[in-house]
Amino acid sequence: MGSKAGSMARGRKRDTSGSLVSFVRGARLGVPVVVGYVPIGLAYGVIARHSGLSPAEATLMSVLVFAGSAQFIACGLVSSGATAVGVVSTTLLVNLRHVLFSMSLLSRLRHLSRPVLAVLSFGITDETFGVAVGRFPADEPADWREVAGLNFVSYAAWVASSFVGAALGSTVGDGARLGIDFALPAMFICLLVMQVSSRVALLVAVVAGALAVAVATTPLRAWATVVATIVAASVGAALDRRRAERRDGHPGGPTERQGS
Amino acid sequence: MVVGMFVVTYLSRAVPLLALSRKQMPAWLRTWLSYVAVAVLASLAAPSVLVADGKLALHSGNVYLMASVPTLLVAARTRSLLLSVVVGMLCVMILRALGIGAGAG
Prior knowledge:
The structure holds 2 protein chains of 2 kinds. Chain A is an all-alpha fold. Chain A has 13 helices and no strands. In chain A, 72% of the residues lie in helices and 0% in strands. By secondary structure, chain B is mostly helical. In chain B, helix 4 packs antiparallel against helix 5. Chain B is elongated.
């Protein structure tokens, strides 16, 4: 089934036969995300209740915020008596990485109208971003219905599982025994492998991974993704430029790179 | 509070797309952005398997680290998201059934 989904993604292309078909195709790309979100959403719902949020508040947060790590952190802050200002500013810090995701998706989405972009951008998460950059080629206009399908099933899974977790309120089953908690790390590993397309990209991955691990083991861990990404992408861009200069024999030569 | 969280999160997602969508980006920025995806994925993947409870966990009791090896191999060979996820989960399940990393991860 996995290879079928993969070949479907590759055979995508221009046929815009029916919006529903494209939407469903996008939704199928979201299957691994759904597998990962359900146990985390359940856990979030349970933890939100334990930290003093009502089922309605817990679900509303998933409906409006749709950002797992920020929501877990918010629960922790609420139960330790933090102010709303503290929670909101921590959310901003933790979610700053979305700025990078959003910028990085530009080359695939810039052909779309502003209202469509406004809707699609709501569905950007670590996971939907990862699948989108893995499945939609860079610098090629992506079909917005496919992106919408991917984002929608991920969002639906997140909201529904948060609601169920919050409604049950106590520990639901033992998903850990089935290894479900490893679904998202495994997905990130595969998406990373798919992105390592050149030696420079491999170096960028090593730098980013090492830096993220280093920052994640300090109290500044909320910064890990942002700091590691900015530094590692800059290293990659600098190397890319040096290579282009050497190849063209003069500085400031073209640094175009196809794909990613 | 929830509404405030919504506003800051949504702005971080929407503003770059909306503000930059009609502008031509300089070449250096496009080059830089072409490395953002790989950097983001590495900075999400590495801590998720190498860090547990805010500490570096380079030991055989870390089931995520152990399971990431076969996951990596399957991902490199098949490039299938679903297959990698299934193999990864199976490995974690088996390792836990063997009593490795009980309570951790």
